[in-house]
Every structure is written in C-alpha cells, then in structure tokens.
Amino acid sequence: MGDSFYFCTSIMIDNFFAKQLLSWHHLENNRILPWKGEKDPYKIWISEIILQQTRAEQGLPYYERFIATYPTIEALAAAPDQEVFKLWQGLGYYSRCRNLLATARQVVAEYGGKFPDQYAQIIQLKGIGPYTAAAIASFAFGIAVPVIDGNVYRVMARYFAAPEPMDTTTGKKKFNELVTSVFDERQPAAFNQAIMDLGASVCMPKQAKCEGCFLSSGCRAYRENSVYVFPVKTKKIAVRHRYFNYYILEVNEELYLQQRPPGDVWHDLYEFFLVESENAGTTDFLDQSLIEEEKPHIFRSKQRLTHQLIESKFSIIKLKKKPRSGFEKGAWIKKINVKNYPFPKTIISFLEEMPYF
DNA sequence: TTCCGGAAAA
DNA sequence: TTTTCCGGAA
User: Fold this and answer.
1) Which residues of A269-284 are buried (b: 16+ CB within 10 A; e: fewer)?
2) Fewer CB under 10 Å: which end of chain A, C or N?
3) pTM for the full model?
4) Which residues of A320-348 are buried (b: 16+ CB within 10 A; e: fewer)?
5) pLDDT tens per residue across span A32-77
C-alpha cells in the first residue's frame, strides 16, 4: 500500500489536486489579510513569526502595530528590547519576540539590512524553522518549496487518507512526499497560500465544509466518510510499566486460580497467583517449608495495552500441601479443567508455550 | 476541559 | 526524541 497508491492518485489524474486548489483560490478565496500577496520579505517574515501557533484573527492587530511602529528591518533592529516586548505583550510564546530582535539585528549586521533570498540562509536565522523558511522563500522570492504547516498536514492527511502519524519523523517525511506530489512548482506562492487557506477556511479541524469543497471528489477521507479520523497523531499518553510475577501453585494435580479484580485490566478474567512489583518477585507470600519444587521464571511475556506495558514472569511452584491461609481469594482447580477458564492473552501465551498443562 | 500549533531547548 | 513555550476557541 502506501507509495503506489499515492503515486497513482496524484499523477494519473494530472494533478487534479493543484488544478482544483488553484481554481478555488482564484474564484472563491477572498480572505483579506494584509500579508496576502505581500512581496516585501520583511513584512512576510513579521507576519509569519506572528502567525506561528497563532490564529490570523488574533495576530492581525499585532501585525499592523509592528509594521506601523517598525516599517523597516532597520527600525526594528534599532528598537530597544523592552519596547518590542511591550508590543508583543499578550501574544504568547515570547521567545518568538527575542528571536525576532536577534534576527533583525543579524540581517542588518550581516546582510546590510537586505533579507537573505536563499532558503539555506533563511532557515539559519533564529526563530525560523522549516515552515517559516518555506513561507518566506516562496512568498517573497518565488522559490519552489512547499510549506507544511498544521493546515497542510490536515488537508493532505484527509485528501489521501494518510494513516501515518503527523507528529513523528517518519510521518513528517511521508507528508513531505505527499505535498511534493501535488505541488505546483510553477506557482509556488499561490499554491502555498491556497492550501493553507483551504485548511483554515474549508478543511477545518472540526465542522469542515466538505459540501462544496472543490476537492471533495478526489478526497479519499471524504469518500470513505472518515474526514475526522485525520490527521492521525500518535497519542502521547503516558505508558505505565507494570511487572507481574505469576506463580503457578500446584498441589496434587490442582492449580490455584484467582479472578481479576474490578478497576484494573482484565477485570473478571482469571489468573494465577500474582505478585506485582518493580523487580523480580519473591516467594515470601508462602510458608517456605511447603515448597517441594520450584521452577523460577520458566516463561516471560510482554503485553502492550493502550496505556500500559505489562511484563509478566511465570514461575511454577509445586507444594507439598495446600497452605492453610492466604489464598481465600481464589480457588484450587483441577489441572484438567484449567483450560475452561477465561484468561488474558498474556496467560494464554504461557499456557500455549507450556503443553505441560 | 480539551484541542490546536512551529521552533528550540533539553 | 521529547518537552517546553502560550493564549484563544470549541
């Protein structure tokens, strides 16, 4: 799957995506924002830094105040830090402001106030990463490099129903390939503006306007009614590590089984005697004089749940007779009948590996 | 209360 | 590779 599918979709239909996107952009995309169509790299840079992690509506008044107060990069470079921070106040992510000042001063000092026009130079500047470098390069200098921001991830993920998570290194690489496959190198600025606007005003995270979208007929997620499945992200839930030490207690062809308690994994399923611990368990729970034979750690398994990683170690302990107390929770079951009880997968693996039962 | 989002530091 | 940085909207 993967590669061949994407290839066929984008190439065989003669870049339907770019054609439709640019048609929509030309006919219907009339969002009026002051940085649209702007060619001055300084103004584009200011707008892009402000728009990092920030909605256009929120950033707009800041942009206007910045441009009014500092019409040129020289003006900004010469401004006192505190004054610039005051202007940035309330916008959040204040390292953007510090980097803004550093870059303004660097461009004045090293480039004579002329904003660098090569992607490789632009991305070296403080506060400018892959997205912002691509935006400045394409909008100000017409360089054919696609922007990849949150909007683009969403549009691409849905259009191709791309299962790769967008927040991993390999996933980012895949999305880079996807955008590249539909990119229009002849009009990089228009394409980049259009795809981000589409994400912002049509292909939104929620309540997307799929009806009437110029691209819906080619959109796989729309076709498969799975628009809100995308983009996929690796759920960054904390994985809890647990260590289960299972002891198969055996007396006269009988094994000890207990039922999993409520409020924990595997509720109501059965298991052997369990000691949960960070390390190897001990047999302290037993009267040592009862032990006839011990086979420690004869099997181990790992089970991955959504939110837990459970490592289990199994040990067999043959007893001379049933302990008098400490095992009221469960019951002694004839070995022949053990297979009739429901077990979690990790115990099934053990039983399958141990034909002994 | 949860979701959203670029870059840099850890 | 993961965490931190912020505020607004749903």
Assistant:
1) ebbbbbbeeeeebebe
2) N
3) 0.69
4) eeeeeeebeebeebeeeebeeeebbebbe
5) 899 999 999 999 999 999 999 999 999 999 999 999 999 999 999 9
Q: Which nucleotides of B are covered by protein (CB under 7 A)?
A: 3-8
Catalytic amino acids of A? 48
CA distances from A174 to A127, A149, A295 (A): 24, 14, 49
Confidence of residue A233 (pLDDT cuts 50, 70, 90): confident
Instruction: List the structure tokens of A310.
Output: 């459970």
Length of chain A: 357
DSSP A247: E
Query: What is the distance in angstroms measured between the alpha-carbon CA of A254 and the sugar C1' of C1?
Result: 49
Tokens of A91: 């916008």
Q: Which residue is nearest to nucleotide B6 (CA to C1')?
A: A52
Q: CB within 8 A of A162, min separation 6: which ones? A: A6, A156, A174, A175, A178, A230, A231, A232
Spanning CA of A87 to C1' of B3, the rounded length in angstroms is: 27
Determine whether the distance from the CB of A52 to the nearest atom of strand B is below 7 Å.
Answer: yes
- What six digits make up the tokens of A98? 């510090």
Q: How far is CA A130 from the centre of its chain?
A: 18
Give the nucleotide nearest to A236 (CA→C1').
Answer: C2
Nearest nucleotide relative to A92: CA against C1' = C6
Nearest-CA residue relative to C1' of C7: A92
CA neighbours within 13 Å on the CB side: how many for A50?
Answer: 27
Q: Which nucleotide is nearest to A55 (CA to C1')?
A: C8
